[in-house]
Amino acid sequence: MAVCVETAAAELRDVYSSGKTRTCEWRVSQLKAMLKIAIHHEKEIIEALNSDLGKHEHEAFLHEIAAVRSACRMALKQLHRWMKPEKVKTSMTTFPSSAEIVSEPYGVVLVISTWNYPILLSLEPVIAAISAGNAVVLKPSEVAAATSSTMSKLLGQYMDVSAVKVVEGGIQETSALLEQKWDKIFYTGNSKVGRVVLTAAAKHLTPVILELGGKCPAIVDSDINLTVAVRRIISGKWGCNSGQTCVSPDYIITTKDYASQLVDALSSELERFYGKDPVNSKDMSKIINSRHFERLSKLLDEDKVSGKIVIGGQWDKANLKIAPTVILDAPEDSLIMNEEIFGPLLPIITVNNIKDGINLITSKEKPLAAYIFTNDKKLKEEFVQRVSAGGIGVNEVTLHLAEDTLPFGGVGESGMGSYHGKFSFDAFSHKKPVLYRGFNGEISARYPPYSPRKLKFLKAVLSGDIIGIIRALLGW
Amino acid sequence: MAVEAEAAARELRATYATGKTKSFEWRSSQLKAIQKIVSLHSDEIVEALRSDLQKPEFESVVHEISGVSASCKLALKELNRWMKPQKVKTSLITFPSSAKIVSEPFGVVLVISAWNFPLLLSLDPVVGAIAAGNAVVLKPSESSPATSSLLAKLVGKYMDASAVRVVEGAVAETAALLEQKWDKILYTGGGKVGRIVLSAAAKHLTPVILELGGKCPVVVDSAVNLKVAARRIIAGKWCANSGQTCISPDYIITTKDFAPQLVNALSAQLDKFFGKEPLRSKELSSIVNIHHFNRLVKLLDDDEVSRKIVRGGERDQSNLKIAPTIISGVSTDSLLMDEEIFGPILPIITVDQIEECVGVINAKEKPLAAYLFTNDKKLEDKFVRNISAGAMIINDTVIHFFEAGLPFGGVGGSGMGAYHGKFSFDAFSHKKALLKRSFAVDISARYPPYTPGKRRFLRAVVQGNLLDILRSLYSCW
Questions:
Q1: pLDDT of residue B95 exceeding 90
Q2: Where is the Aldehyde dehydrogenase domain (chain A) (predicted)?
Q3: How far is B315 from chain A (nearest CA, A)?
Q4: What residues of chain A lie within 8 A of the CB of B19, using their CB?
């Protein structure tokens, strides 16, 4: 497959050089084609997601299909505006002149997707790349096999295959792709492979966007509307692919005093949502495969953790299902507190003072998202000030992703770069400044032979010192 | 030196964790300290630059000292505004809510500087890092040792050593620094070391800005004000550190017909600027060291090249000076067209039709800058649309560097990321999304058990269709 990858990259480069992908017409046609896929093949997509992830139609529609449609529509609506060069004021330094910043595509880009939102995390970056005028190769995750093959079929059917290609496969194909030179790479996944991608990109000086993960904490203060808070937490955790979501709350921090109320509220709302037999609830996704299932059961089985389960803990290995499980005060050195859980297990860590929660969070790697439920303005401010994360939600979890005016991306271990809304267009654009001058307005002070007077004049110009300029011009 | 690098990183991390560098007061105090350095010690700086590069005082003041001073001034003036979170609109989906984008420092950052503008390319990024609230280690280039040691002395004297550190040294020290974990790295230099920096950064998932180089082309059309064009080309080439500048014109493209006129114009202006004995001119910088001098002389002495010299070619090894040299009718596969020249040699490529310049330029790596002299709007349009470069200027060279409203950075082989002006602040800031909601409105359609009715409602909300929303609200789920 090294041969077809090299061929694919070369073909795309030729097509890109022809200039076709840069035209507004081409971009619009491709965005419309993508929209068609998301509208006319909704059923097929939902089936593929159900096959790969046991994802309920509700989640499949809301989190994946609706989001893809929305991204297409926004790009179609805004494309003209986004493509317009941005005029920039120029200063005395280059007077007389005018300037603008021109957005141009990078060229031929690679999007490597992942398995948990296989439609969304494949197509949204592709939409971004196309709207910015790039040719693009998409490598969907082999772990979500049905969706990978559905996307390959549909994109092959609707899109311009000379400039938008899908390369399916596993590690070998990904490695072969990473050997090629790309003008930008967009990777969604984990930090281990993120490092591999960055290292491969370094050889070609390729800029990279990494959308990684991390342990997203949620602080729950007392004196809040606990029912609403708990519903939102449940929705962001178990209502998002059974917790297999990069921005799901990974663990909760609350006070020792408040913990039991929180556990009770979680317990009663979980029952309202998923019934008395949650393992068999059709409203929750399954675990993606037996490897991850084993990984998660191992987290639960660890001695220091298994005795601390306060809700759930049941599982069905045959159907790869784990019930919503809450663990109270797992030790700091337990496995579950040291890796991104990415599943339906929710540890609650208790502290004496809710502020200690902030110290706990800042002692760990920067997460993709951090949340706080509170009505205490001061605590809110301190949280926002001190906690560095990709994004922050106050009294909400995961919903900041739905706002396309907010950049979505990580920092530190949770990634670099961002996208969504116009940030998507910008992510795949090189911002090229162009300065326009005429042949008038010659400043001979620039040229040798140098003199103290010329120096004085230029110093004044560079610091915008109008009086200094006049003085220098008058020879003072 | 591994110990020094590790100690610097560790101490700065401890300082950063206290939150000190995030305060407006600290940032402001450090920016003022940099201003003091360049204003109170300009004589020493000029001396150091003369020692390292034989840089004329004029260039030292205009390019380096004024450059740093202007950056500080702008940052001090705008800092409050830059630091303010940016309010953004929210949609029906999260109603009621408010959202902002908050700029926060990355943490502890590393700036690796270069030798050709050793003051500017050290302090300008440091201004950005500090304005954004980071702690910063600066590694100046060992190839400009006088400036490096002056920077170490002055930064040590005026700045907060617990958060702003200079680490001097060469390859070993740089390697030791690159072993540490940084929250951002800004590197200015060549593509080979750029790759090394990126690979080292990959281990720690550190984002990097690379300010590299490339072969910056100048296309010269006929029907231009040739005198002005020639002066501006000379200014960007030989009045900028003897062509040892990442954005200096590297080579010229013009038509076969026009080349002789261009050569004459350049020659005439060169006489005016540097006199008949340019090697003796104090206005010409020297080549930084014997290694680069030999590299450039080798290019000049190549058989193919030496017989095409139309101006200059003289050299003075004892003073490491090479006269402004123009070579005409160079072929695109000549040695001179292989690598970035980074010196006072200017090849001219001739084509039949000026439009062919696009093909010549696009056959190479994307340069840090591309220039065009023309009065032909069609050519101008073709140039801007079809050539990718870090930046472009029509009818001038290098001067975009001083426009703080324009991002300065490369693309492809010439780098990634950008800085200058507010772009410096942004380069060293993480833009953190913030969404605030109240407990007031909660839409139960989000929650299981999932029903078709809930789905209808959510569809309508997602589509922003008010009528559908109302319709679905009236059916039960």
A1: no
A2: 5-432
A3: 20
A4: 386
